[in-house]
Amino acid sequence: MTxxxxxxxFHRRLRGKITIGSKVPLEAENLSIVYTPGVGAVSTAIxxxxxxxxxxxxxxxxxxxxxxxxxxLGLGDIGPAAALPxxxxxxAIFSEFADINAVPICLDTTDTDAxxxxxxxxxxxxxxxxxxxxxxxxxxxxxxxxxxxxxIPVFHDDQHGTAIVVLAGLINALAVTGKGADVRIAISGAGxxxxxxxxxxxxxxxxxxxxxxxxxxxxxxxxxxxxxQREVLALSTAGDDWPLGExxxxxxxxxxxxxxxxxxxxxxxxxxxxxxxxxALANPVPExxxxxxxxxxAAVVATGRSDFPNQINNAxxxxxxxxxLLDHGVPQVTTAIKITVxxxxxxxxxxxxxxxxxxxxxxxxxVPGIARAIGAAEGERC
Length: 382
What we know:
- By secondary structure, the chain is α/β, with parallel strands linked by helices.
- The protein has a domain at about 315-380.
- About 45% of the residues lie in helices and about 10% in strands.
- Strands 7-6-5-8-9-10 form a six-stranded mixed β-sheet. The chain has a four-stranded parallel β-sheet with strand order 2-1-3-4, sandwiched between helices.
- Strand 9, helix 13 and strand 10 (about 300-305) form a beta-alpha-beta unit.
- Helix 9 (about 190-205) packs parallel to helix 10.
């Protein structure tokens, strides 16, 4: 029924990619326990001890996927209804790979206060909040305020999922090329993903970072940059010994693109350092196509696409991350957890090579491996 190469027809036939079903067959013998009157005893137990909601309901295996539809894939601000198929797809991945119940919540507002309040009001039904496709810079404030207000993990996947999988791939790419943490890193894209990548790389010890947006390279003397961008610039040491060239990537060891198609050519890659690493992650068309990057001398090339080797995809991260957070009752996604997940993901590649720096999304070791790593790290910190 679902075998078609036409995405419109595929979705028309399915009429939704997720379902809600009962975990037990409903029969005359158990209906009075599943529902009234027996369920009343369960509600009373939770009213007496609210913490019991996590053992007597499905809340500890349920995640809200919250969006306002303002930054959907490479489509931009398309609204909440148009974002729903994407959120359904993410919920399907949660279910298939991590056995997590995920509920798409597409909000018809872009007001920061309204989004924060709405998620706070809905939070008792969920064990975690996955923020998705909310535009910058509002996404930073929304995540910060919800993290402060709630006792369950809040995770903006566009920021941190991207950053984690980039770090995982970069760990192995550096091993392949024999480079170290002192590499010069050029990031194209100073929105949610680009800034989160920069923050995580700095936390991992890679501080020689240069970042640009559509108006050019970010510098502390530029007037049209926001507070989040200034914060990243204050952490970078790129200006100490890396003079600006004709392009962002001149002299760089690593290029990470989370921006737009066709920004660079093979000639630009030749202006990078020896054996450069190129992560061209714009979708569906990357900043430079893999064959052109290799023609310019790139030693390792990654994209966000599934039809090329080394797909840098958030789906490598969020199922296992939330499985670990929920299983171990972790209330907040710290920088230490992000690094733990990146290292666990990188370690699943047994023999890194130019064509393989991250595992396949279908590798069955990913979710349990990440979940175990989170549990072990949390145990060490307790």
